[in-house]
Write a structure and sequence with these properties.
CATH topology of the largest domain: Heat Shock Protein 90
Structural class: alpha+beta
Distance between the termini: 25 Å
Number of helices: 14
Shape: elongated
CATH architecture of the largest domain: 2-Layer Sandwich
Strand content: 15-25%
Number of domains: 3
CATH superfamily of the largest domain: Histidine kinase-like ATPase, C-terminal domain
Length: 431
């Protein structure tokens, strides 16, 4: 592993890479491997594989991959295994292995190469998708029952009140259906992108091998082209989009939808910042934290959207002066179908009303979009000090609040900030 170019490339990978000699020595570990396994570089260099990995029985499946390579000369194309890190955290890894061959013409194997990535969140999304299916019938049952009961009572065509109830609950059904379809369809696309990323890494590996073995370059490139032909290229409908302009559109759309509310929507936007993303998905990505902020902010409150550029990313921040989220809810809001309060409290609300929402599907969809388009989400929240428990309710208007006099005082009691970090220059997944 003394080739400088190869080392630089491996160190730049997001996936962990371990090279283990047949004598049990760890020949090489990139930075991602140290981070994913929670093992320091010095410890990795000083200790043997046995000392580092054999103490945890939960790591047997991971160790079997290594032993099969060293003892039986068998490698794994792909497998998923649990791994207990040194800090006690149990993660799920997607692992592949192959042999490291000598640079000279000898066929003697020098060791085994193990490439792995953390798929813990991806597996959690799989479980969330199953939870969606389990809860969907329950989530649909209440509005369907309301519609059925209301229809029986709509006898007089001039009775608009019942018509409004029908329309409200039909809209709720449609929102659920659209959100579920997005989650299922985008999750399938995410699986395809993950597979495409692995294929792309294999292609890059062939390029490296061809460079280091010029006499075999023609044969290696032929194999590479065969793999490309068999599995094909993975494209998306992404394009270069001015994020600044789309935020302005999203804010105007939100203002129209929340025209019945007295919530200020302000922006602090750096112009000309572009990302590479699906435009249809981007609108949903932007609308989700804004809508969430409006529904969590009482009348008289404020929401500020800021867009700035850092060295490595573009940062979108959506900060509200709302009631905030309890620590217990913060840990579960991206799981889907999480109700901080009783479902009936949400079912009587319209979109953008204070306290509306409750299904959690939009945030689950946002998390899937983040995995698919490679941006990150952070949520920082402080629950209002006067209603620290989820069962305690805000009156929905600062004027009606007995604890504060104005928006400035309300802003000090709680609030939530969602931060979305996009790659600069709109880097494509396939680059």
């Amino acid at each position: 592993m003394d080739n400088t170019i190869t080392t630089i490339i491996l160190e730049s990978m997001n996936d962990g890479v371990l090279v283990i000699g047949f004598d049990g020595r760890i020949v090489f570990a990139n930075g991602a491997a140290n981070d994913l396994l929670c093992i320091g570089k010095s410890e990795m260099a000083e200790k043997s594989y046995t000392e580092l990995f054999m103490s945890e029985s939960e790591n047997d499946a991971f160790n079997d991959i290594i032993f099969n390579g060293i003892q039986d000369r068998e490698t794994r194309v792909y497998c998923e295994v649990p791994f207990r890190r040194s800090d006690g955290k149990l993660v799920e890894l997607a692992v592949t292995s192959s042999f490291l061959r000598n640079k000279v013409k000898s066929e003697q194997d020098e060791g085994i190469v193990v490439v792995f990535k953390d798929i813990t969140e991806s597996k959690a999304l799989d479980r969330a998708r199953q939870r969606i299916l389990d809860h969907l019938s329950h989530e649909l049952r209440t509005p369907l029952t309301i519609i059925n009961a209301t229809l029986k009572r709509v006898i007089d065509p001039e009775n608009a009140r019942f018509g409004d109830r029908i329309e409200q609950n039909l809209k709720r059904l449609q929102d659920i259906q659209l959100a579920v379809n997005d989650i299922v369809n985008r999750k399938q696309a995410l699986e395809e992108v993950h597979f495409g990323t692995w294929i792309k890494q294999v292609q890059h590996l062939f390029d490296i091998i061809a460079e280091e073995n010029g006499e075999c370059a023609s044969f290696i490139n032929t194999v590479k082209n065969e793999i490309t032909g068999l599995f094909g290229e993975h494209y998306s409908s992404s394009q270069s989009i001015d994020l600044s302009e789309e935020i302005v559109k999203a804010v105007e759309q939100s203002r129209r939808s929340a025209a019945h509310r007295q919530v200020l929507l302000n922006t602090e936007i750096k112009n000309g910042l572009r990302v590479w993303i699906d435009p249809e998905a981007l609108n949903k990505i932007l609308m989700t934290p804004v809508k969430n902020a409006i529904e969590a902010t009482p009348d008289g409150g404020e929401i500020i959207l800021s867009l700035t550029q850092a060295e490595a990313y573009i940062l979108l921040s959506v900060r509200d002066t709302g009631i905030g989220i309890t620590p217990e809810s913060q840990a579960q809001i991206f799981g889907g179908f999480y109700h901080a309060r009783d479902t009936n409290l949400y079912s009587t609300k319209k979109p953008y009303d204070f306290g509306a929402g409750g299904k959690g599907l939009e945030l689950l969809r946002l998390k899937i979009f983040a995995d698919l388009y490679q941006f990150t989400i952070e949520c920082e929240s402080k629950r209002c000090v006067f209603i620290p428990d989820e069962s305690q309710l805000c009156p929905g208007s600062i004027e009606a609040c007995p604890h504060v006099k104005d928006g400035g005082e309300c802003a000090k009691t709680g609030g939530t900030t969602f931060r979305l970090k996009f790659k600069r220059h709109g880097v494509r997944l396939s680059d």
